[in-house]
Amino acid sequence: MAIEIPGDLLPADGRFGCGPSKVRPAQLEALLSSGSSILGTSHRQAPVKNLVGSVREQLAALFRIPEGYEILLGNGGSTAFWDAAAFGLIERRAQNLVFGEFGGKFAAAAGAPWLEAPDVRKAEPGSRTAAEVVEGIDVYAWPHNETSTGVAAPISRVAAEGALTVIDATSAAGGIEFDVAQADVYYFAPQKNLGSDGGLWFAAVSPAAVERIERIAASGRYIPEFLSLKHAVDNSRLNQTLNTPALTTLHLLDSQLRWILDNGGLGWAASRTAESSSVLYDWAEASSVATPFVSDPSHRSPVVATIDFDESIDAAAIAKTLRANGIVDTEPYRKLGRNQLRVATFVSIDPDDVRQLTRSIDYVLENLGG
Predict the structure, then answer these.
(1) What sign for the dihedral angle of Cα 38, 43, 44, 48?
(2) Is residue 338 over pLDDT 90?
(3) CA angle, 27 then 31 then 33, to 5°
(4) CA dist 287 to 63, 192, 220, 333, Å?
(5) What is the DSSP pairing of strand 139-143 with strand 119-122?
(6) Tens digit of pLDDT for each residue in 58-115?
(7) What angle do CA 334, 6, 293 make, to 5 degrees?
(8) Closest CA to 128 of 156, 164, 89
(9) Strand pairing partners for 75?
(10) What is the pTM for the complete model shown?
(11) Nearest CA to 327 among 356, 367, 362, 303?
(12) What is the spatial distance between Cα 333 and Cα 339, in angstroms, rounded to a whole number?
């Protein structure tokens, strides 16, 4: 018999996916009310360029970028950026920290045949590793937050002369406090905390990173036009992209940034995600059948919580039952292969909805097999 969760236990909004993430109704209302002024119009004209400029200005404010840093954007998501970095950011060799699926994808891109093989430092899923200065490395790269495992890593510049610190921030940007001056490139796609859609990448970049991009572009290395970071620098300064940008993505992002900044900026957002994730971790630690997958509390992500279940419990059955009751996208990362739930606690998700989620899970546990 199907389990029907009582209405008083259900979240007001049952979206807990790690990407694409929950988009707030207010963002959709703003898109409906003003999106017609940009959708279907030229991206070289003022309405779209002004929107790009607004997004860049708000990202600069959110990240409190130092003088000389710039906000870049380009066509494609993080996958496109990994390839663009292999062509136009890594000079000879990268060191890649891998503690999940997405760090591993950048490491694979850094293994391009025109580069020296990357120095890959792997950690078991659920833990993390740290950068180590090695002669000949000119890019040190790792995820701020590993979406696949729920591990977060600190951002601290690697003290290696002439090297760049490059951070994958897709599931961290806008939800975890950090000092952008500790990175040369802090790049992300905006479909997580920033409540938007796909099709674009953004990056906060240092003067040293811009100098590297321009130097490689002038070196004679073959770089496909679509993956040219030099084109991204030049076009971003004009508030445009090489090809037509994803306009709905830009509009949703603009609304989300305004909401976060109006509520207090990155500090407010980080406190909200910390509250939500703590609800889940505290619930799991108090449970007799669940436990946080990331055993070290200092490694636990505030924006992606992974919860393991005892082998006597079928986590897939829990996720299926939750989905049937309108609570969606709590399934684990498909390639991790664990008996767990993965729950996004991005800034758009109300902490009270996370509390209701734990009550719903408790109800399902009480009634599974009954």
Answers:
(1) positive
(2) yes
(3) 115
(4) 37, 28, 59, 22
(5) unpaired
(6) 999 999 999 999 999 999 999 999 999 999 999 999 999 999 999 999 999 999 999 9
(7) 30
(8) 156
(9) 200
(10) 0.96
(11) 356
(12) 10
